[in-house]
Amino acid sequence: MTFWNPRAERVDPVLSSAPATVSVRTLGFALEETLMSYTRRDLEVVLADELTIEWPHADTAPDDGAYSKREVIQAYTKGWELPRLIGLARRVVAELDVNSDRLGPLLAEYDKGGGVGTPAKNLIFAANGPKPELVLRDAVNNDIEIVRNGEHCLVFDQPVPADGLRFTHLIGWWRERENIPADVTDHEVGRALHARLRASLGDNGAELKVFDSYATRYRASLDIPALIPQVYLHYDPQTQHRRRRSGEEGPLARQRMDFLILFSSRHRVVLEVDGRQHYADGDIASPSLYAQMVAEDRRLRLNGYEVYRFGGAELAGPGAEAMLSDFFDQLTAKMS
């Protein structure tokens, strides 16, 4: 007689001969197995000091003997979404002297799923005045300098983390940029930053509704991907108005993205809010404007971005808030 053995059904999700599905479970397991090669004492140094991960429990310490090595790793990464775990796995492979046989195949499988292949280098956003004028200070190194109107836009001048740009990262950057004292709480700094970002949307009611809907999520946690408004994508030294007056078309149709979310260094989501100016010239439908819009969407998607559009009319109705909340729930689940 044969009895079912539940232990026999447990297959190592990383060592199985079948291609591994990259999920929070499989990647978390691989990270645990990789990091457990350290001694208990060294593990805490690696996690807290070398990888600079914050211990989440204020009432206990990771080295008080109450946790096994696996439990320590699980506690540090509890609740992390997949892009954040991917970022940690990349750092473990690149920065630590450990065997990456478990993580390497999962990272390779994850990278097959697409996304943008190169890291973000320049983030210019939230302009609330005249268009900034840029020059290539060093074309060989792609060094960009704002030579005029820089006071009206924001420039995130730090490396974008592999696990995405979270609101906590922006808060730390804003605190340093504005010389905000340490005794001011992160929530207070976040509110000031939120007000500055919101100001870049002017009186555009539809865009404000999208921005405010997402901002309600910061009440639960500041440590989620940031919704970044008015991000420069292309740069044309002439304004669209000047080009229209001279009868010429600009070389690149869309210079700014309405919103950008960097879920990871590879996975970038663009949100566009379409008013009448996107598809009509005054009150007359414009096939050429529509063609420019969809052509630019194709170009972005081929480069690894995901693009989602909202019609201005759907944001004006009574069910807009519920629709946006549901959309952001589904988007977060998709990227998890």
Describe the structure.
Mean pLDDT is 81; it is low at 1-19. It contains 11 helices and 10 strands. The radius of gyration is 23 Å and the shape is globular. By secondary structure, it is α+β, with helices and mostly antiparallel strands. It folds into 2 domains: 13-111; 123-335, no CATH class. The strands form 4 sheets. It has a 4-stranded mixed β-sheet with strand order 5-6-7-10, with helices on both faces. It has a two-stranded antiparallel sheet with strand order 1-4. Helix 2 (40-50) packs parallel to helix 3 (69-76) and helix 4 packs across helix 5 (103-111).
- So what's the overall shape? globular
Count of discrete structural domains: 2
Q: How would you classify the helix and strand content by structural class?
A: alpha+beta
- The sequence of SSEs as H and E is HHHHHEEEEHHHEHEEEEHEH
Distance between the termini: 43 Å
Mean pLDDT reading: 81
Residue share in helices?
25-40%
Total beta strands: 10
Read across the widest sheet, the strand sequence of neighbours is 5-6-7-10
Low-confidence stretches: 1-19
Largest sheet composition:
4 strands, mixed
Strand proportion: 5-15%
Please, how many helices? Answer: 11
- Please give the radius of gyration in angstroms: 23 Å
